[in-house]
Amino acid sequence: MYASREDIGYDFGDDSKVRSKPIKPNPNIDGGWAWMIVLSSFLVHILIMGSQMALGVLNMEWLEEFNQSRGLTAWVSSLSMGITLIVGPFIGLFISMCGCRTTAIIGGILNALGWILSAYASNVHYLFLTFGVTAGIGSGMVYLPAVVMVGQYFQKRRALAQGLSTTGTGFGAFLMTALLKYLCTELGWRNAMFIQGAISLNLCVCGALMRPLSPKDLHEKYAVRSDSEENQAKAPSHSTETIKSNGVLGEEPEKKEEAANEEVLGSVQHIEIGGKSGSGRSMYGLRLFKTVSQLTVTVRKGFALWYSSYFGAASLFTNRVFVAFVIWALFAYSSFVIPFIHLPEIVKQYNLSRQDNVFPLTSIIAIVHIFGKVILGIISDLPCISTWNVFLMANFTLVTCILTLPLMQTYVGLAVVCGLIGFSSGYFSLMPVVTEDLVGTKHLANAYGIIICANGISALFGPPFAGWIYDITQKYDFSFYIAGLLYMVGIIFLLIQPCIQKKQPRGKSTEEAQV
């Protein structure tokens, strides 16, 4: 199912030298500190994605406080969710320059600041800036590193590791819904947001746990992965090869950048050696100059990798299956977000508040979502199972539930559909795995940044659209039907593109042509 190297048009060098050497696996790959990375990512998902899934509680408080339309008020939640994901490509640039740890710590501070400033909101438009933009950007700066680090530290059990870490979304939705309800009832929504801002500072601790792997360790992982791909015959969809770090993607710009960078550092070292006999003040100036030069080299190298991934001759967008994946992401996420934001209103509309107070429907989604991610991750890691097929089946189940949810007007019926939504949406844990299979670990940050950016656009416009439809029709039915149909269009793109590529005869690679 995935695009092969020949399909994408990349040229790959000979890996025989790498494969011929005995490779001593790093104990931190698939074990050791890798599980601390899973714990860190798990807590990030609780504090960021879990909190965003519980925004339906605050949405009702804002409706009562500011007396604005549902469509306008829903923009606050949508901006926060959307911007968290939309900034993905730019966060990829930060990661290339500063690394995951620094990016996540800065993001934790920004996220906490956004929550605290929102406690002093005087109108909805103030919340757009503080909660939607400030907290949203901070969330994005923590979320993407949390996903990328798990992908770097795991090879054999990637789907399970991503599944365990992303179960934090389900736990967080359950815990944060209960916490925000309690705080809003006892202390009011303003104090609730202030306290939540203080809790969000723990994101800085999560970022500090993201210890980067050395380039040598990453190189060993690529080599181990290439061996496992040759020796392991999984499903047909896994028979194609992934893009590795020794590919042409970003190689030519990197070579030019490395030459320029070496020239800069060489000139600095030459000046430093020549100035050793000088005064202490001149030595201090040389050290400062060297530090600035090294920082400049790091920034240039990171920007070159980021630029080549998006705009280079062999950019990610030359992978046709990846492009279809991006189109799917544009329609998919809103179908999952809309129920979380508007379910409290639907329950109120059907006079089911008494039953929902006993066991909220959003909590049902959150709890089953936890099991869905773990179970789908375990199934996808089985040797005889295709991750791609599991991913597609979960998507079909979710879109069916979205289309049937408006037909359910009893608590039991809604609870059953919400349970299926929670389980099938567990495919979110497979998204980084599918992305890494398409582009390789080295380009995972930039590629997954594009995917979550598309998801962010979907989340940004989905809930306000549902609120706008309600303001016109006084029903949410059409919102779910339209969202479900658009979601189905995205799934069709995923099905059509691999079939087209399968029918096309594959030409010889550049290496074969030269021989």
Please explain how this structure is put together.
- By secondary structure, the chain is mainly alpha-helical.
- The chain folds into 2 domains: 204 residues, MFS general substrate transporter like domains (Growth Hormone, Chain: A, Up-down Bundle), CATH 1.20.1250; 189 residues, Up-down Bundle (Growth Hormone, Chain: A), CATH 1.20.1250.
- It is 77% helix and 0% strand.
- It is built from 23 helices and no strands.
- Helix 18 packs antiparallel against helix 22.
- The longest helix has 32 residues.
- It is globular.
- It starts with a helix and ends with a helix.
- The N terminus and C terminus are likely disordered.
- Pfam families: MFS_1.
- One of its GO terms (molecular function) is monocarboxylic acid transmembrane transporter activity.
What's the quick description here?
Helices cover 77% and strands 0% of the residues. The chain is mainly alpha-helical and 515 residues long.
According to CATH, the fold-level topology of the largest domain is Growth Hormone, Chain: A
Spans of at least 5 consecutive residues whose pLDDT stays below 50 are: 1-22, 228-254, 500-515
CATH class of the largest domain: Mainly Alpha
Strand percentage, roughly?
Answer: under 5%
Keywords: Membrane, Transmembrane, Transmembrane helix
GO cellular component, one term: membrane
Protein name: MOT14 protein
Subcellular location: Membrane
